[in-house]
Amino acid sequence: MGLGALPATQLTFDLQATPSPTPSSHAASTRTSAARRPLPTSGKARVNYDLLFKLAQTQITFAVTPDGMRTAMLEFDAAAYDADGKVTVRSQTLKLPLTLEEYQDFVRTPFTFYLPIDLPTGSVTLRAGVFDTVANRSGTLEIPLTIPGK
Prior knowledge:
7% of the residues lie in helices and 51% in strands.
């Protein structure tokens, strides 16, 4: 996840980065406040952003347990580098234990994953990644962002 590292291309995904809705909106109230963990940084204002990862469900590898459960585990990572090279990191692991019926429903719809992050204002380079621990495959991308002040 280092700035400027070569991209990993075993998994491909889309990433949508948008400012978080205001706390009074319905969408924000449905998300848990525990999911957002601001990291202290001196002298920089921070803006809440929502990262939405979109990954084709056919890229996710499931292991089958003896009792017929399908299990997958994905790690979602984001690293935001400001103009001074200071980094803000956010990571979350998603475990997907599914019954056969749940798995059949899962493969019918595109897979999305929401990850909140607090970004410093100004020019930011956002590096995002997905790691499939079952298949040991990953994908990364890097995008420039300009984060306006509040």
